[in-house]
Amino acid sequence: MRLKGAGQSGKTGARRLIAKHECLSVLERIKATHYETAVLSFDNLLALRILVKLFRFKDGRKPFEMNKIFRRILEELNLVKGQAGTDRTFYSLRHTYATQELLVGTDIHTLARQMGTSVTMLERHYSKLTATMAADKLA
């Protein structure tokens, strides 16, 4: 799913937001929970992003601290610690995304561009994973 007008600016500059197709149904359900957003197309919603917030509670309040909310969910699911024994954080979702994309064969250059990071950074963090994925080719 590619959203017109949806951009993200980060360390590597501006880039277009490209989301998985599965995100659309989730975003549609969230959009439908608020009368102001239910009638808007995503293009119109993005044009009004400063005035209308999609991610908010039903009473209109914006979540104050997403990290605390994420931590509470992890605690309820007994998932606070990762495989390495370190605490998972909201930022851990970025690592999960990168890992899943590499496992399905997304090339590292495309992934680096999408995530707004460098190929060098991805290689530094995921070199064991990419070597393991290429084991059949290397054997």
Protein described:
Strands 1-2 form a two-stranded antiparallel sheet. Helix content is 50%, strand content 11%. The chain is globular, with a radius of gyration of 18 Å. The protein is mostly helical. The longest helix is centred in the C-terminal third of the chain and has 15 residues, at 119-133. Helix 6 crosses helix 7. It has helices spanning 23-32, 35-38, 42-47, 66-76, 92-103, 108-115, 119-133, 135-138, and strands spanning 2-10, 13-18. It contains eight helices and two strands; from the N terminus they run E-E-H-H-H-H-H-H-H-H.
DSSP E strands, number: 2
Proportion of strand residues: 5-15%
Query: What Rg is obtained from the alpha carbons, in whole angstroms?
Result: 18 Å
Major sheet: size, sense and barrel closure? 2 strands, antiparallel
The count of helical stretches stands at 8
Question: Low-confidence parts lasting 5 or more residues at pLDDT below 50?
Answer: 1-7
Element pattern in H and E = EEHHHHHHHH
Please list the strands of the largest sheet in the order they lie side by side: 1-2
Give the overall silhouette.
globular
Label the structural class.
mainly alpha
Distance between the terminal alpha carbons, to the nearest Å? Answer: 37 Å
Calculate the mean pLDDT score and round it. 80
Helix content: 40-55%
SSE layout:
Blueprint: E1 2-10, E2 13-18, H1 23-32, H2 35-38, H3 42-47, H4 66-76, H5 92-103, H6 108-115, H7 119-133, H8 135-138
